[in-house]
Amino acid sequence: MASSTPSPALSPSHRPKEDSERPPRDIGTLYYTDLLPFTVTAAPETREFLARVADLSIEFIRSTFDRNSKILDFHQPEQLKEVLELDIPAKPLNLDQILVDCKDALKYQVKTGHPRFMNQLSCGTEVVSLAGEWLTAAANTNMFTYEIAPVFILMEQVTMKHMRDVIGYKAGDSILAPGGSVSNLYAALAARHKMFPDYKKKGLLALPGELCMFTSLHSHYSLMGAAAAMGLGTDNLIEVPVDEKGRMIPAELDRLIQDAKSKGKVPFMVCATAGTTVMGAFDPLHAVADVCEKYKLWFHVDAAWGGGVLLSKNQRHKMDGVERSNSITWNPHKLMGVLLQCSTVHFQEDGLLISCNQMCADYLFQQDKPYDVNYDTGDKVIQCGRHNDIFKLWLLWRSKGDEGFEKHIDHLFEMTSYMVMRMKQHPDKYELLNDEPECTNVCFWYVPYRLRSMKPGPDRCKLLGEVQPILKGRMMTAGTLMIGYQPLDHHPNFFRNIISSQAVRREDIDFMLEELDRLGYDL
Amino acid sequence: MASSTPSPALSPSHRPKEDSERPPRDIGTLYYTDLLPFTVTAAPETREFLARVADLSIEFIRSTFDRNSKILDFHQPEQLKEVLELDIPAKPLNLDQILVDCKDALKYQVKTGHPRFMNQLSCGTEVVSLAGEWLTAAANTNMFTYEIAPVFILMEQVTMKHMRDVIGYKAGDSILAPGGSVSNLYAALAARHKMFPDYKKKGLLALPGELCMFTSLHSHYSLMGAAAAMGLGTDNLIEVPVDEKGRMIPAELDRLIQDAKSKGKVPFMVCATAGTTVMGAFDPLHAVADVCEKYKLWFHVDAAWGGGVLLSKNQRHKMDGVERSNSITWNPHKLMGVLLQCSTVHFQEDGLLISCNQMCADYLFQQDKPYDVNYDTGDKVIQCGRHNDIFKLWLLWRSKGDEGFEKHIDHLFEMTSYMVMRMKQHPDKYELLNDEPECTNVCFWYVPYRLRSMKPGPDRCKLLGEVQPILKGRMMTAGTLMIGYQPLDHHPNFFRNIISSQAVRREDIDFMLEELDRLGYDL
């Protein structure tokens, strides 16, 4: 210390303990100005207000897991606008109204953690992860420097290293990004930078021609978004045909690379998908890696969805070859059940993320700081400020351990097998698009009574495609079930059921099958 | 409803009320599997566990606002690794350990809401916004469709419309993005798309030459990041000189545009900054708008930092002319005190965001949904999944009203004036870089005793620059104060004090000045 004079701020005798321990005033009639920090003696009221919000949230969680509660109370947008008071007022509203606002928001919100919400790749609410997010909010910090997020920066390092170990990378670097699309963008930027390091500075002038990248026809649309944003143009994202299970065909990839080269294009990256969005297919990673090695292309794996299988001895063979990739996207907010948003991207080569994205802002990344500035992460990303997405993942992993996560993944696949088995018992009602799903996506058509005896053909096909959205509408109105649907290739609309919530039990699958029949039988 | 059979799931008589109301078991010895949804009768334990995490967080908030508590307990990274147990275990840890993990994380975390934390553009912890974030975590949804986020999508619409009204846009569209850098990227992508609509598909082939954009020398480094990511190359981000207050010089902008054109480059966008990162300068928006009109260029305003001044009658004149812009970035997580992360970008022209970023993913944005799919937002962004960043903003605005936010902004500027006034009373100790700050950035050198009598010149200048980082190190060790520092142009390291926390009072500023002197006098 520079001086021996004690700091006037740190004397404990000044603490207004009596304020902190008295009972709170009736908070309903108070305003934000009656809370901390506006009123310095308002610790009891602040505690009471936050405790009430916590209570509301906990009650929502309880009812989320209550199979007797509805998943949603559906209203059309125009109806909901009438029911809710959403306007920004000129004058402050009291805390009573703020608590009513909180209640109303939850009342009309969809319970994405409900055991019968099977609508998205991110279903479920993990309570420990939720606890992590509450604490993250209280800590309210930014992940760009060790200076203001020391604990969370170290957690990131430890957790990302653990994930790279699971992947099979010997070294490398990783970062958390706001969603899998941005993670995939980071991979594409690094791939371009690796092949054309002058590009960052010079742009087009550094290029020998039109760059192009390859991905499967069933890959996620974020690759196309990256092609547009990066300036390649979507024409330069070349889509590789897939087999009947939705997996990229490596021979087609080889052919398309040769084709692009013969047209003077410059291939630089191939993206294989591990768990496609709709069918849940895993591209054959070893075969794709072979093609990448042959043509010296960057090999990225988009395992935003399927990455979780790496945690299970029973399932991880589906990603054999991932250790040969240059980069991988893996979203813990999907199969691993971490709260939204938690996406990671990992690189086999250390140092690339920073050399690609570094802009050396003096005001944040001073080199003469009083600690080792290699711990600062902000210059590795295009984001600058970055939300703390690590604590909710780290805390959940601490509570489950690797073993718990293995059980977690195995449970999801067991439930999926059970669903497929049950559907196969009633082939008249449930037509599977793929009777051996590779991930927890179960794609099927519900067949209403009148179509069961109809001859297969274009007419029946068209009708089937029209029925599914109507059935979806009935589910939402009933509030008992949520399953997503979409068309794909030549297939008309079908349901894609996702099991990514730990809440799902056999009884929920039995319920789901009965409920489809109850709601859709007469369509 | 399709059928008159009641759903078996919705009968209230099945609810296990007795479980919900019994006292919880001792949760310390339990594991995650003893909580919901793993144990279906575990509502009491789940409630107890979450309540304890809420209590820990609330206690952290209380101590954050306690001026007798330290801002941080600084440890070097290697020390902190020894103190904390960060490893991912093979086997599950019990809830007692999970709660210890939470305590430890908060113990070593920097209190960014402390009244004497003046280190970043985002300081302070707004309790109502924190409440919003807790509820957001419980709701755990994704903002891409109305289907699964109906309430929050409508809140976004209402709040974004309100912000566009404040800006002075007659119509338009807006989106929330993960930070100002991504918001600026959205603006640049839209600007490019507007001028070259074929570019999205064709890439380079659609361009008449090398695109370039313009921003001030003091603008945020995210513009350079955007130039690299988008494929322009950082050489094609042309930096416009600034005046002594850090404001872009419009005549220089005009000259540099002509210069770029004469070299065959294709200017497409100018970014003016409203509140530069270091000095807090506001570029002259009308004059920049005139230049943009003259050359038919997209006019973007990066008001990530300064945007909040629009809420104050006393301050908004600094952004006169903003209504002439094509787009504006404005981060409520900065001057407005919303929890991290909350950034918005607004467009004067409606429809551009979607035509620029739309990739039409069938699995999410089906056109035959049972509601008006214009409410779905996911196809407007490059993110796909998007965290719910609206509730914490909307709820805070409801609690403050426009009037409360005006007071909020005015308070920050009053505190800034007070700080500058107090520093001017001691010119020997505090040398201001700019004695009339335009925003709440106060840039200054602390002058230790031995330098006070030294002649101005390169030697003193060099010493001053060396002293500030050492003083920063002492602040962190003492834990009593946090202020950022950096060099800028030819200026050696100086402090940039930010007032963006509602907790700051005159006594904190008095304390800060004394503490600098206490810690730095002998340097």
Automatic annotation (TrEMBL), chains A, B:
Which Pfam families does the protein's record reference? Answer: Pyridoxal_deC
- What this protein is called in its record is Glutamate decarboxylase
**Matches recorded under Gene3D superfamilies:** 3.90.1150.170, Type I PLP-dependent aspartate aminotransferase-like (Major domain)
Region named Disordered: 1-26
Q: Which GO terms describe its cellular component?
A: cytoplasm
Q: Share what the entry says about its subunit structure, partners included.
A: Homodimer.
Instruction: Write out the GO MF terms.
Output: glutamate decarboxylase activity; pyridoxal phosphate binding
* UniProt entry keywords in alphabetical sequence: Decarboxylase, Lyase, Pyridoxal phosphate
Instruction: Give the classification, highest ranks.
Output: Eukaryota, Metazoa, Ecdysozoa, Arthropoda, Crustacea
Transmembrane ranges, per UniProt, are none
Question: In the UniProt record, does the keyword Cytoplasm occur?
Answer: no
Composition bias, kind Basic and acidic residues: at what positions? Answer: 15-25
Listed Low complexity bias regions:
1-13
